Amino acid sequence: MLRSLACGLLLALFAAPALAEQIVVESPWIRAAPPSARMLAGYAVLHNRGEAERALVGASSTRFGLVEIHETVEVDGIARMREVPRLSIPAGESTSLEPGGRHLMLMRPTSVPAEGEQVEIVLRFDDGSEQPVAFEVRREAVGSDEGHDHHHDH
């Protein structure tokens, strides 16, 4: 009986990290902002390599007082942001956090990170697992159109 209990405990300890590794974060970045900015936005692509749907349910960072998942929606012809409590990532698929759509809203920075800096954001998933990710601060997404005006996007 004790042996079964010990085996079950070991399986539980090893299962949580395995679940966290099912989500692969690609191209994490934060849009560079002026030193006076009170809000920034974080973007990435989340790949679910697992066999079950997963969801991003929150995030945090020591560099920001508050991090929320937001989406941009159009209401009466005006783009507005609203908080999203969970962001589903279907099994075997990807979900994007991107300018003009869903993104991490990074509020109340302790100091605005400089272009080229790496900022750690801890992503929290529906199974209770957490995944620290280094987000690079830059002006545009890799491969973006330099001439496109993103000032209205977060």
From TrEMBL:
Which InterPro entries does UniProt cross-reference here? LpqE-like (IPR007410), Lxx211020-like (IPR058248), PCuAC_sf (IPR036182)
**Keywords of the record:** Signal
- Organism name: Pseudomarimonas salicorniae
What does UniProt give as the signal peptide span? 1-20
Give the superkingdom in one word.
Bacteria
Mind telling me which Gene3D superfamilies this protein's record contains? PCu(A)C copper chaperone
Entry's PANTHER family? BLR7088 PROTEIN (PTHR36302), COPPER CHAPERONE PCU(A)C (PTHR36302:SF1)
Name of the protein this chain belongs to: Copper chaperone PCu(A)C
